[in-house]
Amino acid sequence: MKTLTIIILLNLLAITSARSQDISGHWNGTTKRGDKEITFVFNIKQENATYSTTMDVPTFRIAGIKPSATTFTNGKLIIDGSNVGMNYTGVFNTEAQQFEGIYKEGGIEMVINLKKGTIKIEDSKRPQEPVKPYPYYEEEVIFKNNEANITLAGTLTLPNKNGKFPVVILISGSGPQDRDESFMGHKPFLVLSDYLTRQGIGVLRFDDRGVGESTGNFGKATTEDFSKDVLSAIAYLKTRNDVDIKNIGLIGHSEGGIIAPLAANNSKDVAFMVLLASTGISGTELSVMQSKILREFPVKDEVAYEKNTRKAIAIVISNKGESEIKKELTKHYNDFLRPILTSLNVPEKNINTFIESQLKTSLQPWSRYFLQYNPADEIEKLKIPVLSLNGSKDTQVNAKINQEGIRNALIKGKNKDYKIVELENLNHFFQECETGKMDEYRKIEQTFSPTALNEIKNWVIGHLK
């Protein structure tokens, strides 16, 4: 009995220690995904009895992700980032002085042990990124989306502190993005804004809602909601004396290219538009295409796989209640995906995680909106000048198929001023590349092809009023 009492006392001491421990501060951990080491940093803050967290991924130079909730009870830390598609659950090990847990994102599970303290990651060489002091004016700005009751934070760069200048608003692609659109170790919007500002064109770029210094819940927002954030940015620019309000333009990358037409069609203040790697087909058709190209497992029958993918989409966009949709979708994923993954000897636990992730993603407001949205409908309404650029080696958004959709919509809408260019050997982020596959992005030193930058600059300058 003495031994049992000692064990119980030790356990109680461990729990008490974990309870009373101040977990405020930076916690970092490294995990492996394939042959790549990925470092995560969680900055935990405590105010009274409430915790909040911001997440950085220095490996990919991503910072300021804001999970929706953080709890710490009896030595167990839960960082709930369902709003941004992630979750971390860890238990504090008093002997090792670290949280030992699992990080989940999408269908991926990774073991991450978090130790207190900061960590420095050596940056890859990115020669196009500007170094301060810049030869132009830069200002940190804040503006409100009153309808959503959120505050958006960004950076405005102008050729000079004095004067009145044309300004473009940069609109980021899908997923929670900061103002630089940081991804895979690159900052394409930082490079683009620097280049354009040096050419006499002002640029406003801002953190997505719920990211960096912006407030709001990213996970509950749709493409339409993001277009209203852009409208708030336009309204803000109109309040400034240093902005030429007759020359406000939109430049949207990837999903930003389908947000831009929505915003422009609800504003009289957009003078021109640039679509970068934008889609011109419905969300349903794009999702079907991407489900074949981007999936990480082989299938024996592609026809059956597409048929089942379309059935899943039909369930998601049906008019039934969420509980009914979830029930039908759960059954369909178990009937459709489980046998495929089982035949590939994927562990049962991993299959369950993957299906759970698919369900969460499918039921998000963003997914349900996106699958029913056809950007061609909005592009057809555009009466302003439009430039569309896509890379020939883009594996996420097929250039030919999507530019055909964009071209047909502009012709149908009788737009009199547009230019559509497929740029050779460029990927989804307009880097000169070999394969165009996603795992290549980080390895490439170049952030933004000079050819693409020049196309954008020449076209914008040629269309200023």
UniProtKB/TrEMBL annotation:
The keyword Hydrolase applies. Keywords: Hydrolase, Signal. SUPFAM superfamilies: alpha/beta-Hydrolases (SSF53474). Residues 1-20 form the signal peptide. Gene3D superfamilies: alpha/beta hydrolase. It comes from the Bacteria. Residues 192-279 form the Serine aminopeptidase S33 domain. GO terms for molecular function: carboxylic ester hydrolase activity; serine-type endopeptidase activity. GO terms for biological process: proteolysis. The keyword Signal applies. This is Alpha/beta hydrolase fold protein.
